From TrEMBL:
It comes from Cerina litoralis. Belongs to the alpha-IPM synthase/homocitrate synthase family. LeuA type 1 subfamily. The keyword Acyltransferase applies. It is an enzyme of class 2 (transferase). The lineage of its organism: Bacteria, Pseudomonadati, Bacteroidota, Flavobacteriia, Flavobacteriales. This is 2-isopropylmalate synthase. Its EC number is 2.3.3.13. One of its GO terms (molecular function) is 2-isopropylmalate synthase activity. Pfam families: HCS_D2, HMGL-like.
C-alpha cells in the first residue's frame, strides 16, 4: 500500500533563526537553504521579509536559488507585510505567503484589543490580499493550541473560502498534550467545510518537551504538513525537530505516512546548522546527538556486539552516522574491551582479556572515558604478551 506523504516545512531560517545568538547573514542562509533543498524538504520558510532589509535580501536570494522546494515568507495580517513578502518572493519558482493572526482569547484581547468577528475579518482580508500576489497562501492561527475549537473551525472555514491552501494550527506556547492536539486536528477535519481543499499543518513548540509528540499526533489525526527545524532550534525551548519526526514516521511503517527526506543527510545537516548558528547540539539529542548511537553500559554493549538490533531501533547509516560506537567506561564489560582492543589491533585470548580487564577497571575508575591511546597503555602495563 502506498504511503501518504507528510510535507516537511522547514522553518530553521525563520522560527529557528529568531533565537538570540543564532542570527545568520545572507551567505550563511543561502548555504543552509541549499542543503535543505538537497535534503528534500517540501517548503523552506526563508524569513520574515518585512522584519529587516537583511532578511528581505535573504528571502529574495533564497527565492532565486532554490530549484525544488517551495520558498515561503512570513507576514502578519498586515497589507504592507504582504506586499513586501510578495516582492521578496517574486523570483521564486514556487512562492508561498504565510500570513496569519492570533486567534486565542488571550491574543484577541491583549494583542489586538479586538473581537472574534474583528479577527475573522482581518484574517480573510489578509488571505485575499496575499492571494492577489501568489496562488499558494498558508494561513496561521497563532496560539491555536489555546484557541477554542469551534472558533478555530469558523476562522479556518472563512480563510479557506478566501483562498488559503494550507491551514497552520500552531501550538505557539507548547501547551497542548498530544491527545488534545490530535483531537484538535480531528475536530477541524470533521467540522470545517471545504477542508479537503486545504492541507492541515502542525507547528508545535517545545515548552513542555512535547513538540515532536504533538506533531506526530497531528499527522495521525489527518494533518499532512509538519513545520519543524533542524536540531529543533527555535523560540524558547524550540520547535519540533525535523530529524525526529522524519525518523519516527520511517521507523513506524504501519502508520502509512512518510516524507521525501533523504535521511542519510540528517547528521551532516545537523552539524552544519549547529556550526553556522553557534548552537551546540546536546549529546543525548535523539537522532543527531553525539551519544545517539553510543553504547556505554556493559549489558548493552554485550548485546549490541552480538546483534545490533538488541539495543538499536535504527541503523545509524540511515541518518548519516558511519557506525554506532562502543564507549569504554568503568561500566563496560569484557566484551566491549575485547571489541575495542581488536579495533586497535589486539586479538586477546580469554586469559589475556581477564588480566587486561583488571588493569582496565583501575584506569576506568579514574578516567571518565577510555580512549584508544589508553588501551595501548593498559595492555602495555598488563603483563601479557599480546599480539598486534
Ligand atoms: O509559533 C507560532 O505561532 C508561529 C507563527 C508565526 C506561525 O511561529
Ligand atoms: Zn513558531
Amino acid at each position: 500500500m502506498s504511503k501518504d506523504n507528510v510535507h516537511i516545512f522547514d522553518t530553521t531560517l525563520r522560527d529557528g533563526e529568531q533565537v538570540p545568538g543564532c542570527k545568520l547573514d545572507t551567505k550563511q542562509k543561502l548555504v543552509i537553504a541549499d542543503r535543505l533543498d538537497q535534503l528534500g524538504v517540501d517548503v523552506i520558510e526563508a524569513g520574515f521579509p518585512i522584519s529587516s532589509p537583511g532578511d528581505f535580501k535573504s528571502v529574495e536570494e533564497i527565492a532565486k536559488l532554490i530549484k525544488n522546494a517551495t520558498v515561503c515568507g512570513l507576514t502578519r495580517a498586515v497589507r504592507k507585510d504582504i506586499e513586501v513578502a510578495a516582492e521578496a518572493l517574486k523570483f521564486a519558482r514556487r512562492p508561498r505567503i504565510h500570513t496569519g493572526i492570533g486567534t486565542s482569547d488571550s491574543h484577541i484581547k491583549h494583542k489586538f484589543n479586538s473581537t472574534r468577528e474583528g479577527i475573522i475579518e482581518r484574517a480573510v482580508e489578509a488571505v485575499k490580499y496575499a492571494k492577489s500576489f501568489v496562488e499558494d497562501v498558508e494561513f496561521y492561527a497563532e496560539d491555536a493550541g489555546r484557541t477554542d475549537n469551534e472558533f478555530l473551525a469558523r476562522i479556518c472555514e472563512e480563510v479557506i473560502k478566501a483562498g488559503a491552501t494550507v491551514l497552520n494550527i500552531p501550538d505557539t506556547t507548547g501547551y497542548c498534550l498530544p491527545e488534545e492536539y490530535g483531537a484538535k486536528m480531528k475536530y477541524l477535519r470533521e467540522n470545517v467545510k471545504g477542508i479537503h481543499t486545504a492541507i492541515l499543518s502542525c507547528h508545535c513548540h517545545n515548552d513542555l518537551g512535547l513538540a515532536t509528540a504533538n506533531s506526530i499526533s497531528g499527522v495521525i489525526n489527518g494533518a499532512r504538513q509538519i513545520e519543524c527545524t533542524i536540531n529543533g532550534i527555535g523560540e524558547r525551548a524550540g520547535n519540533t525537530s525535523l530529524e525526529e519526526v522524519v525518523m519516527i514516521l520511517r521507523q513506524h511503517p504501519y502508520l502509512n505516512l512518510d516524507t521525501h527526506i533523504n535521511s542519510k543527510l540528517l547528521y551532516d545537516t545537523s552539524l552544519m546548522v549547529s556550526q553556522k548558528m553557534g548552537m551546540p547540539v546536546q549529546p543525548n539529542k535523539a537522532i543527531v546527538g553525539s551519544n545517539a548511537f553510543a553504547h556505554s553500559s556493559g549489558i548493552h554493549q554485550d548485546g549490541v556486539i552480538k546483534n545490533r538490533e538488541t539495543y538499536e531501533i535504527m541503523d545509524p547509516e540511515d541518518v548519516g552516522v558511519n557506525e554506532s560506537s562502543i564507549v569504554l567506561t568503568a561500566r563496560s564489560g569484557r566484551a566491549a574491551l575485547a571489541y575495542r582492543a581488536k579495533k586497535v589491533g589486539y586479538e586477546l585470548t580469554k586469559l589475556q582479556l581477564d588480566s587486561v580487564y583488571v588493569e582496565f577497571l583501575k584506569f576506568a575508575d579514574i578516567k571518565k572515558e577510555i580512549l584508544d591511546n589508553d588501551i595501548h597503555e593498559i595492555i602495555g602495563s598488563s603483563n601479557i604478551n599480546a599480539e598486534r
